[in-house]
Each structure stands twice: as structure tokens, then as C-alpha cells.
């Protein structure tokens, strides 16, 4: 009797543990049990949909066409403090899109670094952006831009990476530098990154369990935002219907030490730091305008 009870308990624990590692099925926008579709979307070659948002001048009249890639916990409605007057003056058309699994875009169970590039290429082709276009990516949205640099460089007129993320396991980084910077991360983030690299099957469990702190971003840890970020958040909160180059020394999410190492190895990068800047710098009017003007017009930024 005891053996049977113990066996049932063990099986129950195994089933619970297995289910804890598996996310629930996604609710697809536009399906009977999913949210409604409220944005324009394109249909990709594999049948998935990508939702997008346009701003700036009409693309038929645009001198410059820019694809903006949002970061984590964001969407195509990312807040860009660019006035219509400025976009008209520069002649820029901007399209942002919900990456696979975000907002109103369908998830991609087979998503990879490579697939991100070809999603973007299909978006550009279906919107008829022409043979070349510009790109701006921020935070976690910089890796799809890197993917485009790797897989479709012939389509790019220029790119800007704003507070770009890094991978602590890139083999080109010196182990000593990696170890020093990794230890500066909060313990919860060290565990998150370790699990993501060595045990990706446990990521969903880690990000949803309630026993330990799991992610400083999702838990909105105050250490992530410096004074300038807080001021930016306060200004953004006053914007009606808020939509939802380049590193700085006070960004708690992106370690500047490793960015500097990359630039030393790749001197062709035009690198800028904002000494008192934070992770949300693209949401500051002056800095956002400076980034677009340097990318499109080649103007040397005066605010960086």
C-alpha cells in the first residue's frame, strides 16, 4: 500500500513538473478564441501574419524608409517622440511591426535569429519599400537587426542599434571580462540567463514560478532605471494614447564594458555613449531626433 502511494506521488510530481515547463497554447489574434485584429497585417509565406503600423510621410513620397524593431515587453506601437513636422521635413516613412508572438502578430514556434531577418524582408517586400531600407532596433529588438546584417545585408541602406543587448556566451568575448560583467547582474538575472543558455526547456517554468525572484525586467526592479529614465517615464505617461546608437554608462540592462570591447574589434562602427543616459533614451525627444538624423542625414549628433 505504501509503495503504491509513493509511486502515485512520484508520478504526480513528475506530471506537475512537466506541465510547469510547458506554456499554455497561444491565443491567436483573429481566431474564435483569440483577441480581435485591429491593425493592418501582412500574410507571410508560411501562413503567419505580421501586424504593422505606419507613420511619417506616405511611402510613395518618402526619401527614406525605416523599419523600427521594438524590444522586449513592447510592440509596434512603441513611442517615438518624432513630430510630424520633423518627419515631413526629413521625408521619412517609418514602419514598426509586432515581432512574431507579440501584439497582433502570430507566434512562430520555429522562430530563430535567421527567421527574424526573413520576416523583415517579407514585410519590406509586401509593403513595397524598395531594394534597400534603413533599420533601427532597440534593446532586445537589436538582435533581429543583427540578423538582417548577417542574412540580408544587401537590403540595408544603414542601421542603428540603440542600447543593444549582448550575449555573455559569444566566444569572442574574453572570459575575464565576461565573468566580471556577468557578476554585476542581479542574481535573478544571472539565473535567468544561465537557464536560458544551459536549460532552455525550463525557461517558462522559471519565468512563471513564484518561489524565487526571476526577472528584473518583468518584476520592474527599481535598479534598472536611473534618474533620466524615471524622468522619461513620467513624460511618457503624460502622452495621450501612449504607444507603447549606442550605449550609455548608466544603463543597468546593457553592460557598456562589453559594448566598448565590440567597438574596439569593429572600429567601423560609429559608436556613441550618453554618460547619464538610461535604457529608455530613444523615448527622449532630443536623442530620438538625433538618432534618426544621424542615420538618415549623416548629421553628427550634438546631444550625445
Textual characterization of the structure:
This protein is of the alpha/beta class and 304 residues long. It is built from 10 helices and 8 strands. The strands form 2 sheets. The protein has a 6-stranded mixed beta sheet, with helices on both faces. A two-stranded parallel sheet has the order 7-8. Helix 3 packs across helix 4.
**Spatial order of strands in the largest sheet:** 1-2-4-3-5-6
Number of continuous helical runs: 10
- Major sheet summary line: 6 strands, mixed
Give the helix proportion (percent range): 25-40%
Number of strands: 8
Q: Write down the Rg.
A: 21 Å
Instruction: Return the structural class.
Output: alpha/beta
Topology overview:
Blueprint: H1 2-20, E1 41-43, E2 49-56, E3 64-69, H2 84-90, E4 92-97, H3 113-126, E5 133-138, H4 142-151, E6 156-162, H5 175-182, H6 187-198, H7 203-208, H8 227-236, E7 246-247, H9 256-265, E8 272-273, H10 285-297
Parallel strand pairs: 3-4, 3-5, 5-6, 7-8
Antiparallel strand pairs: 1-2, 2-4
Helix pairs in contact: 3-4
Which features would summarize this protein structure in a list?
10 helices; alpha/beta; single chain; 8 strands; globular; two-stranded parallel ribbon; 304 residues
Provide a quick synopsis of the model.
The protein has about 300 residues and is an alpha/beta fold.
Amino acid at each position: 500500500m505504501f509503495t503504491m502511494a509513493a509511486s502515485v506521488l512520484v508520478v504526480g510530481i513528475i506530471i506537475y513538473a512537466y506541465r510547469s515547463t510547458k506554456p499554455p497554447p497561444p491565443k491567436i489574434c483573429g481566431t474564435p478564441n483569440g483577441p480581435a485584429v485591429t491593425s493592418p497585417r501582412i500574410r507571410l509565406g508560411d501562413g503567419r501574419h505580421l501586424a504593422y503600423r505606419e507613420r511619417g510621410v506616405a511611402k510613395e513620397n518618402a526619401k527614406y524608409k525605416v523599419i523600427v524593431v521594438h524590444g522586449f515587453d513592447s510592440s509596434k506601437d512603441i513611442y517615438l517622440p518624432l513630430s510630424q513636422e520633423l518627419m515631413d521635413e526629413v521625408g521619412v516613412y517609418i514602419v514598426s511591426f509586432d515581432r512574431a508572438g507579440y501584439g497582433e502578430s502570430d507566434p512562430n514556434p520555429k522562430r530563430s535569429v535567421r527567421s527574424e531577418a526573413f520576416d523583415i524582408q517579407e514585410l519590406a517586400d509586401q509593403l513595397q519599400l524598395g531594394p534597400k531600407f534603413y533599420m533601427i532596433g532597440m534593446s532586445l529588438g537589436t538582435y533581429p537587426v543583427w540578423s538582417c546584417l548577417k542574412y540580408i545585408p544587401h537590403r540595408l541602406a544603414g542601421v542603428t542599434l540603440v542600447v543593444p543587448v549582448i550575449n555573455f556566451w559569444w566566444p569572442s568575448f574574453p572570459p575575464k571580462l565576461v565573468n566580471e560583467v556577468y557578476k554585476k547582474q542581479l542574481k535573478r538575472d544571472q539565473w535567468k540567463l544561465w537557464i536560458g543558455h544551459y536549460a532552455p526547456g525550463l525557461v517558462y517554468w522559471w519565468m512563471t514560478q513564484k518561489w524565487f525572484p526571476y526577472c528584473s525586467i518583468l518584476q520592474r526592479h527599481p535598479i534598472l532605471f536611473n534618474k533620466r529614465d524615471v524622468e522619461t517615464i513620467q513624460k511618457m505617461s503624460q502622452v495621450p494614447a501612449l504607444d507603447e546608437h549606442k550605449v550609455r554608462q548608466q544603463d543597468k540592462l546593457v553592460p557598456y564594458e562589453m559594448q566598448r570591447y565590440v567597438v574596439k574589434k569593429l572600429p567601423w562602427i560609429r559608436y556613441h555613449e550618453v554618460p547619464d543616459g538610461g535604457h529608455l533614451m530613444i523615448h527622449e525627444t532630443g536623442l530620438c531626433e538625433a538618432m534618426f538624423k544621424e542615420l538618415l542625414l549623416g548629421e553628427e549628433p550634438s546631444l550625445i
